[in-house]
Amino acid sequence: MQIDWITVAAQIVNFLALVWILHRLLYRPVTRAMQRRAADIRDRFAEAERREALAVEEADRLRAQQRDVEAARAGVLAEAEAEAAALRARLEEEARAAVAARRAEWEDQLDREQAAFLADLRRGTAAHVARVARRVLDDLAGAALEEAVVDTFIGRLRALEGKPLDELRAEAVAAGGEMAVSSAFDLSDGMRARLCSALDRVHDAPRVGFDRDPALVCGIRLRIRGQTVQWTVDAYLDDLQNEVAAQIDRGARDRAAE
Amino acid sequence: MQMTPDGTILFHLGPLPVNATILYTWIVMGVLILSALLVRLRLSDTGELTRWQNLWEAVVETIAGQIREVSGQEPGPYLPFIGTLFVFIALSNILAVVPGFQPPTGSLSTTTALALCVLIAVPLFGLARRGVGGYLRSYIQPSPLMAPFNVMGELTRTLALAIRLYGNVMSGTVIAGILISIAPFFFPVLMQLLGLLTGVIQAYIFAILAMVYIASATRDRPGAGMPKGE
């Protein structure tokens, strides 16, 4: 074990030269390269973090925007639903009103048609009854229908008693005996004389005016100012009309129930 | 048996004899400088790195980490010295597996030269970091009476550093020589492979101890960087 000091000196020189060379060629460039790479990586991380922060911010902004859009959509939807409900209610109301109007119109028309039908029926029935009565009277008594009507009317006049007769007489006195007799047919002189004679119960000196009124269906009417005494087929026709009307109403209800 | 390559004079460079130690040292230096040149010429900051740059970056980063760990300081000022100690000793020991190559660390002259470099580097780093007063104060700590012992410790640890490396490398060579004479076909190979491991460990120990000495000289509290058991 010996030390060669020349070799020691040479090795010291070699080692120091190697330190210097490696420092210039290796350690400094490599260290700087690693530092630059580390700085670059730090920059990239910083950039990535910055972008991530931006992305998070953007995501938050988009989420908030989405919430706003959803809220706006919900609002618009609710508003549209409300408008639709209002429109539906209004249309239903209008439809109900239209249906009600149509129904009222239809019922009015039905009433008018019913009234017209009943009027026609009454007229037809009256005419028919008159024809039947005339034929019956002709067959049974041989007398004219007018005679029977006049007799019936005279009978009614004579049947007046009490308050109605008093009121009639008071009116006749107030009118000065003037009174009017209307009939559905022309009265013969005999008929007029019999009527005048019957009217003596009402006034001592009756002044009777005769005229013809076709609206009196097979009847005679006495009018003294506001008081009226009449006999017509109308009462019977009214009963018939009421009965027919009741039948029509019952048929209409049955159809509605079906 | 030739114990040291110092005695093998190969040629003379002028008046200076060039022995095997110096020649193999130049070979090791050549390999290191060549690989450093390969790294330097194709140095890349980003992108793909060459294999050489990857290797050297790993080595440099490891050494820098060890320096940082031992000294608690930034490795910048110490990296060239400590790094060169490590890579030179390690490559010298690794190349011992090449037949015919005699590691220069097997020469007491080489290890003495390296230990002297450490001996000189320790006060230089200490003076550079702490100033003259601060560094000289470390010799009279904890008491001025300890100054002779501190100076003696400085010298003996340098001697120990040189002898340790020399002894380890030389012992490996001696054991290989003995085993070749006894069992020439199998055991020398195992010993050479084991030598790879012990060579790198020796390089690590030498560099770490050098860094510990430097750290003790550059710290305000002497001995703070000393590992346990040293």
From TrEMBL, chain A:
Q: How does it sit in the membrane?
A: Single-pass membrane protein
Residues that span the membrane, as ranges: 6-27
**Could you tell me the superkingdom of the organism this chain comes from?**
Bacteria
Q: Which Pfam families match?
A: ATP-synt_B (PF00430)
Keyword NAD: yes or no? no
Determine if Membrane is one of this entry's keywords.
yes
Q: Which CDD domains match?
A: ATP-synt_Fo_b (cd06503)
**Keywords assigned by UniProt?**
ATP synthesis, Cell membrane, CF(0), Coiled coil, Hydrogen ion transport, Ion transport, Membrane, Transmembrane, Transmembrane helix, Transport
Chief location category:
membrane
Q: Name one GO cellular component term.
A: plasma membrane
Q: Could you state a single Gene Ontology molecular function term?
A: proton-transporting ATPase activity, rotational mechanism
Alphabetical list of InterPro entries matching this protein: ATP_synth_b/b'su_bac/chlpt (IPR002146), ATP_synthase_B_chain (IPR050059)
The chain's coiled-coil residues are 31-97
The protein's location, in the record's own words, is:
Cell membrane; Endomembrane system
- Report quaternary structure and partners: F-type ATPases have 2 components, F(1) - the catalytic core - and F(0) - the membrane proton channel. F(1) has five subunits: alpha(3), beta(3), gamma(1), delta(1), epsilon(1). F(0) has three main subunits: a(1), b(2) and c(10-14). The alpha and beta chains form an alternating ring which encloses part of the gamma chain. F(1) is attached to F(0) by a central stalk formed by the gamma and epsilon chains, while a peripheral stalk is formed by the delta and b chains.
Chain's role: F(1)F(0) ATP synthase produces ATP from ADP in the presence of a proton or sodium gradient. F-type ATPases consist of two structural domains, F(1) containing the extramembraneous catalytic core and F(0) containing the membrane proton channel, linked together by a central stalk and a peripheral stalk. During catalysis, ATP synthesis in the catalytic domain of F(1) is coupled via a rotary mechanism of the central stalk subunits to proton translocation.
Q: Which family does it belong to?
A: Belongs to the ATPase B chain family.
Entry protein name: ATP synthase subunit b
Identify the species of origin. Answer: Rhodovulum marinum
From TrEMBL, chain B:
Broad class of where this protein is predominantly found: membrane
Give the transmembrane ranges: 20-41, 78-101, 107-128, 165-187, 193-216
Name the GO terms of the biological process aspect: proton motive force-driven plasma membrane ATP synthesis
What are the record keywords, sorted?
Answer: ATP synthesis, Cell membrane, CF(0), Hydrogen ion transport, Ion transport, Membrane, Transmembrane, Transmembrane helix, Transport
The record's Gene Ontology cellular component field reads: plasma membrane; proton-transporting ATP synthase complex
Q: What is an example of a GO molecular function annotated in this UniProt entry? A: proton-transporting ATP synthase activity, rotational mechanism
Instruction: Report if keyword Transmembrane helix is assigned.
Output: yes
Q: Which Pfam families does UniProt cross-reference here?
A: ATP-synt_A
Q: Which InterPro entries match?
A: Alt_ATP_synth_F0_Asu (IPR017692), ATP_syn_F0_a_bact/chloroplast (IPR045082), ATP_synth_F0_asu (IPR000568), ATP_synth_F0_asu_AS (IPR023011), F0_ATP_A_sf (IPR035908)
Location(s), subcellular:
Cell membrane; Membrane
Topology in the lipid bilayer: Multi-pass membrane protein
What job does this protein perform? Key component of the proton channel; it plays a direct role in the translocation of protons across the membrane.
The similarity annotation says: Belongs to the ATPase A chain family.
Q: What is this protein called?
A: ATP synthase subunit a
- This protein's species is Rhodovulum marinum
